[in-house]
Design brief:
The structure is a homodimer of 315-residue chains.
Chain A lengths: L4 H13 L2 H7 L4 H15 L4 E3 L4 E3 L1 H28 L5 E6 L1 H5 L1 H12 L4 E6 L2 H10 L4 E4 L8 E16 L19 E5 L4 H12 L3 E7 L2 H9 L5 E4 L11 E5 L6 E9 L6 H13 L23
Parallel strand pairs in A: 3-4, 3-5, 7-8
Antiparallel strand pairs in A: 1-2, 5-11, 6-9, 6-10, 6-11
Helix pairs in contact in A: 1-2, 1-3, 1-4, 2-3, 6-10
Chain A binds a DNA duplex (25 and 25 nucleotides) through helix 3.
Chain lengths: 315, 315
DNA sequence: GTCAATTACGTTCTCCGTAAGGATG
DNA sequence: CATCCTTACGGAGAACGTAATTGAC
């Protein structure tokens, strides 16, 4: 019915030592208590397991039969607890994160590489997805948590701001805009524009402002920042790219100019399913991401990305 | 460290029902106690296993990892206890008995057959061995117990008399002795004698008397009663055979005459290793053997064997 | 007499149930 | 406000340790 791991251990100790006193010490109890433990065990399994007098201790036939099972049970318990301990110690485990392509370009891989060095046993998975899909993955539990520019509803998701990302205007370096130190939406008026996909957060965030600035929508709409850069370099138009994605737009013929508008920042949230506990490994990465986040809280502009990651600002 | 089967069961119940209240009922405890049990379990394994609020209960990643182990542990416990219970119920198990060839001829096989019908799950093994070997097998634990004409020393063995067996003189039916109703050792004086093996108890018991009766030792010494009978029928001599072995000497040309000497009885003991508990199955057979033993306690002559088992007494 | 297991018995602590508390829809 | 999980608290019983007892050598 109810046999405890403690009694199993007692059995195994006595089986091995064949001495009550020695086995008792090994189990950190008094000889008396140990004797009682064996008695309880025998009562619970309903059979005498040891033949014993003051001199000899030996297994009964039932004891031998129980021995095999006891070893298996003890091994299973050991393995199970050890697995859990490994997970807690981050010696093993699996973490899946969903993040937008901009973060997946450089910053997040770099962070994950560091995490991987610290916790070699943890299997990491990174899904670079657009905003809507990110929330769906988190909701479905297919990723442990997500990084996203949209928070989702508060009933289902638990989100906290990581940092704010600035936007950059990317244009051919021959473009007059490339010479400017900073740009306003108004500066883009009438310019042909290449869009990122509508399901992505960049489009969703900038759409209203761009419409107000009366840019000229070329109708071109791509998913990859690399493609976007190619189109811009090809002269199809200009575009707006979040800071951390600039690396993907780094081309000899392109320039990036920061967009200096108060509200034109792109928040990045850590998003998890509300009420769900993260695995130890996921929690560690969750914490690490917060620690490694670029400076930038609501109100303050996002810190500039690493210099090597940004295209030349001007000719 | 110490996790009990009870907590494993609680975990499995909650995993399945996803309701504290329902799982608590299944475990026959109050909802409060069940909540505490889950809390203790989580404390012992060192990880939160369930995410829960008043409406929903779901496994955490660690809980899912623990689930697999919990199922295996529960299965092992179940299997082990079930096996032990089967043994106690004699639904399974193994019993090995050592017995002298005379008992193995008819009486013991008949008894074992009956026992087998009552306990079909028990695997029976019968070793027909001579006296010395029987004690060695019991001492080594290779048989659960033995039936033997020698008790062995009391320090190592625990023996109790089962019954006393009479001796019969077996001779050709044409022999003058075959006409007698009973014989004394003196009647055998000068007769050529065929011996059973010296390690057997028959030889050991009868040797002194036969020497005193001045029988003529032919030097022939066999292990099988059937061979003995063949030699007697072939005219090599006569011999002495315990009652229960007469079946093996049943030949048209042979006769058996009881040996009427007070001390010429052959005790049969049940012998077990001192201080050793018998398995449930072995204990049952041990008891059954006592119950089915032929009448015959010290002082009373052994009951006659079944008529069909005895050779014709006279021509 | 010595050593080892067991029993006796008082103490401590675990575990459960009743009842109150708190969160959720 | 109804439901369900959790916390508070007190009692019952389990489990342990000290010490006395039994048994083997």
């Amino acid at each position: 019915m109810n046999l405890s791991g403690r009694l199993i251990d007692a059995f195994l100790a006595l089986e091995e030592t064949r001495r009550f006193a020695v086995a008792a010490r090994r189990c950190n109890v008094s000889a008396s208590a140990f004797s009682q433990m064996i008695g309880r065990l025998e009562e619970q399994v309903g059979a005498r397991l040891f033949d014993r007098d003051t001199r000899n201790v030996a297994l009964t036939p039932e004891g031998q039969a129980f021995s095999a099972g006891a070893h298996r049970i003890a091994d299973e318990i050991r393995a199970t607890l050890s697995d859990l301990k490994d997970r807690a110690a981050l010696d093993t485990g699996r973490v899946a994160v969903a993040a937008p392509p901009s973060l997946g370009a450089d910053w997040l891989p770099r962070l994950l590489a560091g995490f991987q060095r610290t916790h070699p046993g943890v299997a990491l998975r990174l899904l670079d997805v657009v905003s809507d899909r990110c929330l769906a993955l988190v909701a479905a539990g297919e990723v442990d948590f997500g990084l996203n520019a949209q928070r989702g509803n508060d009933l289902e998701f638990d989100s906290s701001l990581l940092f704010n990302e600035r936007f950059f205007v990317v244009c051919p370096r021959t473009d007059p805009l490339a010479a400017r130190a900073a740009l306003k939406f108004a500066d883009l008026k009438g310019r042909p524009f290449v869009q990122t996909v509508r399901t992505g957060s960049v489009w969703q965030q900038t759409q209203a402002w761009l419409a107000k600035a009366q840019v000229h929508d070329t109708g071109l709409e791509v998913t990859q920042f690399g493609t976007l850069a190619g189109l811009i370099e090809g002269g199809f138009g200009i575009s707006i790219v979040p800071e951390l994605a600039l690396l993907l737009c780094r081309r000899p013929g392109l320039a990036a100019v920061p967009l200096d508008e108060r509200q034109a920042v792109r928040p990045i949230y850590r998003i998890r399913r509300r009420g769900r506990t993260l695995s130890a490994a996921a929690q560690a990465l969750w914490d690490e991401i917060a620690a490694q986040a670029p400076a930038g809280i609501p109100g303050r502009p996002a810190r500039r990305g690493r210099r090597a990651a940004t295209p030349a600002r001007s000719g």
